[in-house]
Amino acid sequence: MRSHYCGDLRTEHIGQDITLSGWVHRRRDHGGVIFLDVRDREGITQVVFDPDREASFALADSVRNEYVIEIQGLVRARPAGTENPDMATGAIEVLGKELVILNKADTPPFQLDEHQQVGEDVRLRNRFIDLRRPEIQRKLRFRSKITHYIRNYLEENGFLDIETPILTRATPEGARDYLVPSRTHEGHFFALPQSPQLFKQLLMVSGFDRYYQIAKCFRDEDLRADRQPEFTQIDIETSFMDEEGIMGITEQMIRGLFLEQLNVDLGDFPRMPYSEAMQRYGSDKPDLRIPMELVDVADLVAEVDFKVFAAPATDPKGRVAALKVPGGAELTRKQIDDYTKFVSIYGAKGLAWIKVNALETGAEGLQSPIVKFLGETVALQIMERLGAQNGDLVFFGADKAKIVNEALGALRIKVGEDLKMHQCEWAPLWVVDFPMFEEDGNGGLTALHHPFTSPSCTPDELIAAPEGKLSRAYDMVLNGTELGGGSVRIHDQTMQRAVFKVLGISDEEAEEKFGFLLNALRYGAPPHGGLAFGLDRLVMLMTGSASIREVIAFPKTQSAACLLTDAPGEVSAAQLRELNIKLRKTP
Ligand code: ASP
């Protein structure tokens, strides 16, 4: 059929007879001449039909947008003055000789050029049309390049691509499982994997030494922000490598990828302990492109007669921190109110602020609703600690440390974006030395990564004082997004049992849930570790997309539904009976 892709034609093809197959992108009738913009996955070419070829002219006149056609014609230079420098094929056009309509198309629910005028739901419901848009085609093609590069890199470094089951048991990554009822085992359920974690560890016990998989993972989460219930990980595990080795080989992979695909040299990734990241940025995935930092001022306000600050300043779990926005004094009252609303999402009860108008006049020169409560001396001490200058604005967070970190951490990103404070395009780093556990909100502890992460102490030390113990986990962060994370794992039964003990997982429960892993640890488990990268997020960042939905061919909505196939759907009574499932009537 085709001799060339539409988008590939250039001046070097002038004079050639060619055949194109594709879709009618646009049809224009210009004073008796018909122009068809014909589109395929490589791009668009302009085809011209003159009336002197009556049959094909009449056909060209009859086609409509999105008809599928085949054209034979002659490549020629566009007449002088009609070249289009914005189009890759803009220097040539095709003089159409023969035209065949391979298939007609109903008027599409939206024109590709006008996709912005319809809601995302319309586009998702008609995703096969949305996917025709050159922008999405470019992104999915880029995604394919990325996976190709990664497979190559890993294969060259001795990693083996091994598939792990989709129908499996629960894997604890901290989200809810998607369950699949078993027909053959009445009352029993499979869980879809939240990650291949346990299987990749088993592969290490089996001696495969280096494993990878581009793996689908499933997490039934309340879909905050930009998450998908099913997503793709670049999943990696190695034996006989410590964290240095694992971070080294994967950092090299990501650097190579950026260099090859974007011509960007990310340089050596700095490392930052988790505690420092929280202290300075209020986040375990700091966006280092933004120069602002959180500064603690609890010691300065502990004694003031202002409960809002003094109470958290003296609470061991509290934090009082300031965020200096250079040049922020120009923000209007309305903007500050909007930021106050913004931080309330994170549980902040308000957003105190001080505008630095004229520091040389002392506290007089500070404009703020709170200076009178803080007292002039304290207010000036704070300004000094922050190195504040005229024209700056200082925001405050005072609450439980968790709320202050989340609120000021998010505010830092938002203000940084609004005021265009980014100092570079890419800022990667490794966050290391994570705590092993965090509070679960019910007086117990839960694993910060997952319970197979190795602590950096002995089992006895861990049991004696689990809080504050660090793990051998690491996250790769880029521009404030967690690209990937992993850890050196526990390869020793005693340690694994110690961790379960701290987590309040009884021997019976551990046996019931992960007996197969504990069992494997008894039979010669090598030291091992790995990590997983979120492929969707990586592609999103590299293509500059606003959402991961833009880089997934068939994404789900925020409420975890597929509008295209109308899934999840109801099932027949017969199917339910076969599965021995009876639905409870919703009241
Ligand atoms: N299984 C982990 C996750 O999905 C990654 C890892 O530890 O390798 O987040």
From TrEMBL:
Top EC class of this enzyme: ligase
Entry's Gene Ontology BP terms: aspartyl-tRNA aminoacylation
Main location: cytoplasm
Organism domain of life: Bacteria
Gene: aspS
Enzyme Commission code(s) on record: 6.1.1.23
Keywords: Aminoacyl-tRNA synthetase, ATP-binding, Cytoplasm, Ligase, Nucleotide-binding, Protein biosynthesis
Subunit annotation: Homodimer.
Record's function text: Aspartyl-tRNA synthetase with relaxed tRNA specificity since it is able to aspartylate not only its cognate tRNA(Asp) but also tRNA(Asn). Reaction proceeds in two steps: L-aspartate is first activated by ATP to form Asp-AMP and then transferred to the acceptor end of tRNA(Asp/Asn).
Full protein name: Aspartate--tRNA(Asp/Asn) ligase
UniProt entry tagged with the keyword Nucleotide-binding: yes
A cellular component annotation (GO) from this entry: cytoplasm
